[in-house]
């Protein structure tokens, strides 16, 4: 397979990659198109790796290097799963700084797809006009999907949508059940060159379990964290920090992150599971955290991104007995004007 095709179809026009690279950024409009040129220079460069950056949600952002062969394998798995064919339109609306955006370009190159671009902050109003010439595939993060749900007719311009970046709230998952687009949640990370498993969010095949893509299988570490076996890894397997429940070696459910687990009174609690039980009660961003406690070791705390509101806090507490097991109930509710976030918008869980 030639992983360096001579041409790229960009926004409906077939370009010679060599000419694009010779012309550089001025050859395209400022913004995401110009970022595509920058990535092409890296992809067609002499090194056998590309440089990518982690989001910083689990620690300081890191720069890592992925071999182009490894990235190609990831792109081909997506082309195969979604049955993407030459000439079909795909939508790039993710920043090229991160691996998810870069992979959209590689998929377009290898699949000879028409790579159409939109700024990541766009409201995607143009999708409502695309029902007769829809985009075969797009990848988005939660805040972009939330915009689309504000105008559901815009989904008519998308055949398949891959949603990544962070866990999908139950409320959004319920709303996506009513859209015509085939929606998928993804599981993956920068180190795996995006997703290694998908789960259908809506339609007849909707599931709460992730299914590994071709050639990939999973297991559990001694701590109960997901391990990934896939072609191209430097080690026999990649050990993640995600606690999981397996159904064989191809299907799994994520319980939460090991570094988020709260041990209170000698019992382990998974914040993500508690958060799911409270999602529909809290309209503001929030998370479950912990604070030191002399008796329990740590006590469970609910942090809400909003102005201090004692009345709202008391109202929430009345729902705790209905929604939460006795020892899952937060001992404190903390209001914060603003949460710290990563560059990609993920909440940094600091009290």
From TrEMBL:
Q: Does the keyword Ligase apply?
A: yes
Which keywords are on file for this protein? Ligase
A GO biological-process term: fatty acid metabolic process
What's the domain of life for this entry? Bacteria
GO MF terms held by the record? medium-chain fatty acid-CoA ligase activity
Which InterPro entries does this one have? AMP-bd_C_sf, AMP-dep_synth/lig_dom, ANL_N_sf
What region holds the AMP-dependent synthetase/ligase domain?
A: 52-198
Locate the coiled-coil region(s) and give their ranges. Answer: none
SUPFAM superfamilies in the record: Acetyl-CoA synthetase-like
Spell out the family assignment given in the record's similarity comment.
Belongs to the ATP-dependent AMP-binding enzyme family.
Question: What's this protein's name?
Answer: Acyl-CoA synthetase
Q: Which organism is it from?
A: Desulfobacter hydrogenophilus
* Taxonomy of the source species: Bacteria, Pseudomonadati, Thermodesulfobacteriota, Desulfobacteria, Desulfobacterales
């Amino acid at each position: 397979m030639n992983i360096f095709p001579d041409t790229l179809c960009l926004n409906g026009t077939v370009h010679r990659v060599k000419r694009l690279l010779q012309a550089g950024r001025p050859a395209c409009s400022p913004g995401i198109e110009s970022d595509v040129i920058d990535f092409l220079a890296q992809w067609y460069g002499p090194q056998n790796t590309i440089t990518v950056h982690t989001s910083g949600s689990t620690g300081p952002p890191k720069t890592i290097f992925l071999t182009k062969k490894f990235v190609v394998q990831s792109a081909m798995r997506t082309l195969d799963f979604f049955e993407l064919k030459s000439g079909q339109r795909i939508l790039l609306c993710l920043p090229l700084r991160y691996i998810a955006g870069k992979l959209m370009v590689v998929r377009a190159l290898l699949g000879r797809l028409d790579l159409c671009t939109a700024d990541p902050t766009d409201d995607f109003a143009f999708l409502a006009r695309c029902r007769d010439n829809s985009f075969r595939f797009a990848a988005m993060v939660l805040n972009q999907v939330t915009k689309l749900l504000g105008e559901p007719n815009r989904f008519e311009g998308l055949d398949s949508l891959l949603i990544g970046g962070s866990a999908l709230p139950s409320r959004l998952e319920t709303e996506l059940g009513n859209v015509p687009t085939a929606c998928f949640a993804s599981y993956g990370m920068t180190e795996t060159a995006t997703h290694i498993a998908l789960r259908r969010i809506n339609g007849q095949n909707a599931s709460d379990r992730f299914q590994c893509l071709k050639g990939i299988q999973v297991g559990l570490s001694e701590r109960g964290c997901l391990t990934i076996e896939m072609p191209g890894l430097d080690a026999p397997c990649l050990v993640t920090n995600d606690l999981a429940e397996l159904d064989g070696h191809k299907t799994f459910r994520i319980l939460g992150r090991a570094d988020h687990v709260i041990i209170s009174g000698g019992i382990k609690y998974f914040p993500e599971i508690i958060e799911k039980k409270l999602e529909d009660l809290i309209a503001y961003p929030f998370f479950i955290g912990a604070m030191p406690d002399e008796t329990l070791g740590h006590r469970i705390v609910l942090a809400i991104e909003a102005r201090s509101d004692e009345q709202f806090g008391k109202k929430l507490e009345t729902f705790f007995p209905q929604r939460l097991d006795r020892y899952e109930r937060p001992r404190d509710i903390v209001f914060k004007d603003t949460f710290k976030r990563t560059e990609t918008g993920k909440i940094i869980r600091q009290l």
